[in-house]
Write a structure and sequence with these properties.
The protein is built from 5 helices and 4 strands. 46% of the residues lie in helices and 30% in strands.
């Protein structure tokens, strides 16, 4: 009996460690955006990055969310975001340059763009999540961090 338990434990450990088993637990993107989708998303974010680099926090936030039907209901959150962006620019300094660091997707309807921006005092990562709606691509989320 003891031998059987040991054999089963060993067999279970080998099964769990096998590449075939690991592949069954790996997520797979079933649908991905097209190159045109990525280009449209980047085109939507570029003016926001340009406004951030110019120090125009309010314009950047307005460009990001001004056309969203949800923003009217979230005006207080928009004001807070403008203050946070202005605070980041004051703390880290003006942006000297930005580079698109990563393009990712959750599906053909959701794109994440990550930019690394060189501020005067620190590098900051700016993340944008875009959703494809019936009227086209729309920014769903904009965030930044100095911890990456």
């Amino acid at each position: 009996m003891r031998f059987n338990q040991l054999a089963l434990s060993t067999a279970s450990a080998l099964l769990l460690a096998s590449p075939a088993y690991a592949n069954n637990t790996t997520a797979e993107r079933v649908t991905i955006p097209t190159d045109d989708d990525f280009a449209a998303a980047e085109k939507l974010v570029e003016p926001i990055i340009e406004n951030l680099a110019a120090g125009y926090a309010e314009n950047a936030v307005d460009l990001a969310f001004g056309n969203s039907p949800l923003m009217d209901a979230k005006s207080s959150q928009t004001k807070v975001l403008v203050q946070q962006v202005q605070g980041a620019i004051e703390l880290y300094g003006q942006i000297n340059q930005c580079a698109l660091a990563e393009r990712d997707s959750f599906s053909s309807l959701s794109i994440d763009l990550t930019y690394i921006c060189q501020h005067e005092n620190f590098l900051i990562m700016w993340d944008f999540r875009l959703h494809k709606l019936p009227r086209g691509w729309s920014i769903a989320n904009m965030k930044f961090t100095d911890q990456f």
